[in-house]
Amino acid sequence: MNINELHPQEVFSIFHEITQVPRPSKREGKIIEWLKAFAVKHNLEHTVDEAGNIIMRKPATPGYEDKPGVILQAHMDMVCEKNNDTVHDFDNDPIHAYIDGDFIKAQGTTLGADNGIGMALMLAAITSDTLKHPALECLFTVDEETGLTGAFRLQDGCLQGKQLINLDSEDDGQVFIGCAGGIDTLAKMHYSPISNCQLPIANSLLAIHIKVGGLMGGHSGDDINKGRGNANKILVRFLYQVMQATDMQLATINGGNLRNAIAREAEAVIAIPMAFKEDIRVMLNHYIATIEAEIGDVEKDFFMHLETTDMPALFIPTDKAKVLIQALYACPHGMTAMSKTMPGLVETSTNLASIKMKEDEKGAFVEINTSQRSSIESKKHDIKQMVECALALACDEVTHGDGYPGWAPNPQSPLLEVTKKAYQDLFAAEPKVLAIHAGLECGLFLEKYPYLDMVSIGPQMFGVHSPQERLSIASTGKCWEWLKRILETF
pTM of the entire structure? Predict the structure, then answer.
């Protein structure tokens, strides 16, 4: 069976079309044009604002004219992650999706169900000939994944409804009524490379390539408390041990990709004294055993290996390399506090997302990206400052993004009551009402539209922001029935 033949076909046929349209964050031009063409094809009123956000509208069906209008919302961009051995151009290539039992997966890349399936649910609702509903607005925002740009630049007065259903959640049978705020940190350590002949005892050094991989990665909000390994932290911890044991020189270090994804892979090239060749292998074997004892029950496919390689031409100066490794080792990663008001909710966390070697007008530098989250504004800035202090040990530039606000829960929400009742009527069970540690655009919507009553729902997904991303087919069907019942019983 093809994806566009799955049930509910009205949802999966649209989702399949979406997977064929490239839509990286900040480069959403092709999906914007696709959405505009979709609106024209279905005779839907639509507007595009200066940011690229699209709003489609459809009048209420007969008998629902006096009901309050509803806004359905999802973001159009996707996280673009792939395995190192996968050849894929996210700017031009379609996602190669396939069916595996109850799941839709992608071949070696992220699937983009975050948030493509939310878009598909919205478009299926607004084009349905049988669904009864109040006046509908479908809001598609740009660049949610790398800056919430669309939500930040959404203009006042462009939305008419007073109830908003966000379709960017990833857990079956759960209603989210709050989310964490977040802020990103970018640090740079500039340096003047030295040649290999300038190294101490240059003639008796051996070049070693070290790689960490096989980790699950995942969403830096949803998955930060699941005990998964961060490839950057694992690599740096080992490099620190080697640095303590022998005269280590650092040529390259790279790991992770996106600020909102836990690093799955990392690698470095170092040089060590030739006499330390066997010692480093023994050290690595002991280190692997330590890491497996710490995270092996979660990270079944973790691996770490080293091999000799050609001597690099350039290295980071020894003093710079030393403070860099120390700063990265000192930089916190992971959950730092649990919520005291909502059991089971992560309150505060930070993600050491990526380490990259680059060049700019100042010359060579190592760039470090981190992402901090908290449901308490003061704790968000506290963890941001903690990261800044650690990275400032090595970096000459440490800057922070504008950040985004959290969304405070409203347990008395009328929309929440409708959403809960719809689920109970359909499935004879209570949905869980939760807040989420991941960031949603809802907090920014409230700044411009403080009267909005909001909930967030979505079908079950796993492994988002990684090539292990997969979407439950059965859960998508449930979510579609749930969304329809909410609109019909509003």
Answer: 0.79
